[in-house]
Amino acid sequence: MMYYYGAAAPHLSIKADEVVHIGGISITNSHMLGLLGLLVLVWLFFRTRAAVCGKKKHTVATRLVQWIFDSLYDTVAQVIPDPVWARRVAPLTITLFFFIIAQYWLGLLPFVGPVTVGAHGTPLFRGGVADLNMTFGLAIVTIIAAQVYAFKYLGFKGNMGRYFVNPLKNPIMTFIGILELVAELSRMLGLSFRLFGNVLAGEVLLIMIAYLTQVISPLTLQPFYLFELFIGGIQAYIFFMLSTVFISLGLAHHDDHEPVDVAHSSAELTSGSRE
């Protein structure tokens, strides 16, 4: 949130601002908070794992993480009925959920915006998902992962057969295949712009409320902060759900494309059972 209390006018930048330039690499304020959020998330995951394994005592945070993880895993299992493939897909999509919600919520902290650097007062921190590059990167990871899972499940020929069909044999499926290619691109754009647009809208809402009520803004902003916390959870869940569904489309069983990775032994299913 790029706002300064008592400022003559609100400051909002759609793109992330450069904080420092190191070796030809531009480090932006969204990178700064993104790295901080990643470190916090990694620590919380390891702390939760230690609590689940009995090495450390549970806390409210670790119990909440475990409960959310179990709930999201059950959702993945409902979308992808094959338990083996559900186990393979769940780590990616659940990690995306936690990463997005952490970046969204960290962007609401009081020091995000007022803490500045440089002569021009560039904000030192900005929410990671408030940067279109970040949301676009997450969308690319999702779409590439969907293709990787589909290649592994259907094989190269089977997966390519979803998009490229001999027009002389089946002209209708040829046209559908072209639509599927367009759909892959639209999914990537939809995932990135939808998340970025919602985060930007939240920033604009908080900035304008704070600017219009500068004297009593700490009081008037509280309901809107709570609302944004709720919206952050919703947006993270939507991204998680859409990612799971998009990946599951490549794992759908087709009569003319038999899956090549069908060696789902009971040993593989039980050896990595959830703790």
Helix and strand arrangement:
Layout: E1 18-22, E2 25-28, H1 29-52, H2 60-79, H3 83-106, E3 116-117, E4 122-123, H4 132-160, H5 171-212, H6 217-250, H7 266-271
Antiparallel strand pairs: 1-2, 3-4
Helix pairs in contact: 1-2, 1-3, 2-3, 3-6, 4-5, 4-6, 5-6
Structure, explained:
The protein has 275 residues and is mainly alpha-helical. It has one domain. 65% of the residues lie in helices and 5% in strands. It has 7 helices and 4 strands, in the order E-E-H-H-H-E-E-H-H-H-H. The protein has a two-stranded antiparallel sheet. Helix 3 packs antiparallel against helix 6. It is globular and about 70 Å long. The two termini are 38 Å apart. The N terminus and C terminus are likely disordered.
Brief sketch in words of this structure:
With 275 residues, the chain is mainly alpha-helical.
Unreliable runs: 1-8, 262-275
Radius of gyration: 22 Å
How much helical structure, as a percent, in the residues? 55-70%
Strand order of the largest sheet: 1-2
